[in-house]
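ugh ok fine here u go
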Amino acid sequence: MKNLSRLLAAMLLVLVCSNVNAQDKNNPWQISIGVNAVDFYPVGEDFPQGDYFDEFFNATDHWNILPSLSVLSVSKHINNGFSFGISGSLNKIDKFGEADAADLSYYGLDGTIKYAFTEGTTITPFVGVGGGYTWVDEVGAGTLNGTVGLDIWLSENVGLTYQATYKHAFEDYLSKHFQHSLGLSIKFGGTDTDGDGIYDKDDACPEVAGLEAFNGCPDTDGDGIEDSKDDCPNEAGIAELNGCPDTDGDGIADKDDKCPTVAGLASLNGCPDADGDGVADGDDKCPDVAGPAANNGCPWPDTDGDGVIDKDDQCPDVKGTVANNGCPEVTEAVRKALNAYAKTILFDTGKASIKNQSAEVLQNIIDILKEYPNAKFNIEGHTDSVGSETLNQKLSDSRANSVKDYLVKGGIDGGRLSAAGYGESKPLDTNKTRAGRRNNRRVEINLNKD
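structure:
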């Protein structure tokens, strides 16, 4: 029996030394070692036994106690407070109730399903049910067991366990009895791979040391956002930006902000726009004056001040009207002036050549046409009815083109001018009088409205 006690002590030492790192309050394995007491008295039998629970704690008169390590139990947590365990015990029986016994040997091997009413608390009461086999003086019988007890945890893994077990034998030659035990209990079996104090079964990141607040996952930058949910795990940031910093406070994470030190707009990737024209100040050649992006943030110029910007102004150097694309409009008075000048152009008799004395008149016409650089004009030649119609048509056409050529040489774009002769077909006056025929021999310059 002494050797068996030594064996139990050695087993305890091995188990403790192999689990010195166990720290989890929910470690699944528990080992208990201690002393036990066997009491045959309070079991509801006649003398030398007594009534149920009578003198239940009368250790002096009824308990059989072996003064050495005499009980060893091992159990494994299953789920929701339930665990299963086995235990072995030994004792020496010298008291059978109120009678003496002749130092009988006692051995017990039991299995128990235990239910703990609380988990993770300092004081844990429990109940159990099970069965086993008990030998007294080397005569054994099976037993049905009921257990009540209490764990008192002195630390996360070490505590004291007291339990009382009622053993009801299936054979008459083994008396029913109570067995009390008190021992040191150690919980173990959890693993903490990353050493963060959170065991792998509860650690969402078992390979990397982390924080309990994040189920064992790390928060490298310490911003309160675990790395797996942190878009910037190495820079402290804010939750609204998934853990990324916002140096300028514009609500745009620095990693997405092209101007991270100056508050700006999301539409401009975090850069400012002082004049509000939609062009970031860094790209805006006129940052204090609103202008279109197409002109690098500067307003379009309007050189002639007519309200039509130069890029849309067909006459950027001449003040005009919006309706005429920035060019001046040819008024009725101007049209009349052109035709008044045109009617005074003199040609050599029967020819298309222009007389020298018409130079001033033609210059006046050139000056007027230059004031309207986008306007187009039709130059029309007309004759009286003297001579053949064919000759008159040819002469009018030649004279109209002669005027056009003169104007082109004077600096007018030929694309703005067209020339045509109408012969004697469009008289203004009668051809029966000299004055009438003089009026019909003419050149007209009319605005082309097409």
